[in-house]
């Protein structure tokens, strides 16, 4: 077993980094230009004609979910909570991808040619619910973009003489250039190449670090050296579940339902391919992210101290410490591919939201100027990149960002899902339930009020109800309303005996569960006696294509066939 790292890590040098970045972003730019059109179609820029084939859609979904932040956060989970940390991170994240598809089938049925979930909420309820969903996605995508730039800056600063600031500028510029060209179409096409690079690199890098760092003996020697606690050794760590697993279950369920990057792929994939796409992405994500998280477990057992005290440095630090230069270059490509695949998705999502929800629906679908719409989308990408660069200089903890945004979206999950199934849900019920959930969530999550006395009991009661809501939503997608009620009620009753006096010690988990509980209770209470009998066929009439003057032949094929998406021309 080699000695603990002395702080010396392999660097690729400015020339090496420059060549790798030129190869990666030059290749993605070439792919984007190859599918570009002299007259870009506004709808294709957002959803690629709603007919992406299986290969590209599954790869794109996998690449989008496997972002650099998920790799870094899984490594952080492994380092913080031990062997069960990456499992609690990767397994629950993978299962949430699986939970999307039953709801996704319903969403596509009622809105087959929509561009954003907020657009559908506009058709279902009106402006206020649309603004809430669109606004939360703007915030979420900017934070996601920021965290990916942070990841890129960290890896470049760690593995080259370049600074963190130079690193985030390079990553931001590379992603913006190829995404700006063809929008969502560029994002999904480059995702295919990026996910192949990520998966291939992961298969080589993780075993290589394991054996070069000492192999199986590192675990026994790490225990003997006192580097790990009994909780960190256990696959069934209650500490890991309560602080990592349980909050993440709630967070990623919200990501799955509320995130526009996921919804955009849902609207783009061919409707009959929704299930195989999301099942395939489930397997790809889980295997890759759990595997990468083991780098954090190895760092824990080896007694590695994060450089600069920043856990975001752990992944590049382990790679640069134990791998030869060729594998360091491969790991660099893997990380850059993962962060780029999600950063371009965030840019495409933000442009779609502004194009559709802030411009398209405000002037009316029949009055849209497609050229102006495309210009607005491209300007949005530039502005979002500038904002994310500004926020990236703060270098937030990536895991904290992910859990916060997921919990924030938790306020919207039940009202959004209910709006696709329950005719009684009103705009008032949707709006007030989200506002009420935010009002209660924020003081719990940020400990603005001490969790003591009556307030603590109220929060714990709501959190107990939240457990039933989360499990009930999961059950509803696969098994229907009756099973959801039974499972949700049973879960709430089961948690009652030990929830009081216990959940108050876990603010992150309690905040997420409270968001679900309050939004459910308020939305249900304001809707159950409603006389509204909404006709879901209205949604098809309100949502749809903006660029209707484009000939039908131009809308065919990016995705009737994966070959078309790969730039090999139309298949007849």
UniProtKB/TrEMBL annotation:
Catalyses which reaction(s): L-proline(in) + Na(+)(in) = L-proline(out) + Na(+)(out)
Record's subcellular location? Cell membrane
- List the membrane topology term(s): Multi-pass membrane protein
List all Acidic residues biased stretches: 548-563
Using the UniProt annotation, give all residue ranges assigned to the region (Disordered): 548-572
- Cross-referenced CDD domains, in alphabetical order? SLC5sbd_DUR3
One GO CC annotation, please? plasma membrane
Q: Which domain of life is it from?
A: Bacteria
Record's InterPro entries? Na/Glc_symporter_sf, Na/solute_symporter, Sodium:Solute_Symporter
The Gene Ontology terms for molecular function here are:
symporter activity
- Which keywords does this Swiss-Prot/TrEMBL entry list? Cell membrane, Ion transport, Membrane, Sodium, Sodium transport, Symport, Transmembrane, Transmembrane helix, Transport
Which coarse location class describes where this protein primarily resides?
membrane
Q: What PROSITE patterns does the entry give? A: NA_SOLUT_SYMP_3 (PS50283)
Output the PANTHER family linked to this UniProt entry: SODIUM/PROLINE SYMPORTER-RELATED, SODIUM_PROLINE SYMPORTER
This one is known as Sodium:proline symporter
In its UniProt entry, the species of origin is given as Brachybacterium paraconglomeratum
- Lineage start: Bacteria, Bacillati, Actinomycetota, Actinomycetes, Micrococcales
């Amino acid at each position: 077993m080699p000695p603990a790292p002395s702080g010396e890590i392999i660097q690729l040098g400015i020339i090496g980094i420059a060549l790798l970045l030129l190869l990666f972003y030059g290749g993605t730019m070439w792919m984007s230009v190859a599918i570009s059109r002299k007259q870009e179609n506004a709808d294709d820029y957002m959803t690629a004609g709603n007919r992406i084939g299986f290969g590209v859609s599954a790869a794109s979904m996998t690449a989008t979910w496997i972002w650099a932040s998920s790799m870094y956060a899984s490594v952080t989970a492994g380092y913080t909570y031990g062997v069960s940390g990456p499992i609690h991170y990767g397994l629950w994240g993978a299962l949430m991808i699986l939970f999307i598809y039953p709801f996704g089938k319903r969403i596509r049925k009622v809105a087959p040619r929509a561009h954003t979930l907020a657009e559908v909420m506009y058709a279902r309820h009106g402006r206020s619910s649309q603004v809430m969903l669109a606004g939360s996605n703007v915030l979420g995508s900017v934070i996601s973009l920021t965290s990916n730039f942070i990841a890129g800056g960290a890896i470049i600063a760690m593995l080259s003489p370049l600074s963190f600031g130079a690193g985030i500028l390079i990553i931001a510029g590379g992603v913006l250039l190829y995404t700006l060209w063809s929008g969502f179409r560029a994002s999904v096409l480059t995702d295919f190449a990026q996910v192949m690079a990520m998966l291939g690199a992961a298969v080589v890098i993780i075993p290589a670090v394991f054996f070069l760092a000492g192999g199986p003996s590192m675990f026994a020697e790490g225990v003997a050296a006192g580097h790990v606690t009994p909780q960190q050794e256990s696959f069934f760590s209650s500490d890991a579940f309560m602080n990592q697993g349980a909050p993440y279950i709630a967070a990623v369920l919200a990501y799955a339902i509320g995130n526009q990057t996921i919804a955009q792929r849902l609207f783009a994939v061919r409707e009959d391919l929704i299930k195989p796409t999301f099942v395939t992405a489930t397997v790809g994500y889980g295997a890759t992210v759990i595997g990468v998280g083991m780098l954090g477990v190895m760092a824990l057992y080896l007694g590695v101290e994060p450089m600069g005290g920043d856990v975001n440095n752990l992944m590049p630090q382990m790679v640069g410490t134990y791998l030869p230069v060729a594998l360091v270059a491969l790991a660099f490509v893997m990380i850059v591919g993962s962060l780029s695949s999600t950063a371009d998705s965030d840019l495409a999502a933000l442009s779609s939201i502004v194009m559709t929800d802030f411009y398209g629906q405000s002037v009316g679908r029949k009055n849209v100027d497609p050229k102006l719409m495309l210009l607005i989308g491209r300007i949005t990408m530039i502005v979002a990149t500038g904002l994310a660069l500004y926020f990236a200089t703060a270098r937030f903890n990536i895991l904290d960002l992910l859990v916060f945004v997921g919990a924030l979206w938790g306020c919207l999950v039940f009202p959004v899902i209910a709006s696709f199934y329950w005719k009684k849900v009103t705009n008032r019920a949707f709006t007030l339930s989200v506002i009420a959930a935010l009002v209660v969530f924020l003081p719990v999550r940020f400990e603005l009020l001490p969790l003591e006395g009556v307030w603590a009991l109220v929060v714990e009661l709501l959190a107990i109800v939240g457990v039933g809501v989360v499990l009930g939503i999961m059950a509803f997608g696969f098994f229907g309303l009756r099973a959801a009620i039974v499972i949700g009620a049973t879960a709430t009753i089961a948690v009652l005996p030990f929830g009081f006096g216990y959940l108050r010690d876990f603010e992150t988990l309690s905040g997420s569960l409270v968001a679900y509980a309050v939004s459910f209770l308020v939305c249900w209470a304001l809707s159950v006696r409603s006389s509204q009998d909404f006709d879901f066929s209205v949604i098809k009439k309100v949502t749809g294509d903006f660029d209707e003057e484009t000939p039908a032949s131009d809308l065919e094929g990016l995705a009737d066939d994966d070959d078309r998406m790969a730039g090999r021309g139309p298949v007849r």
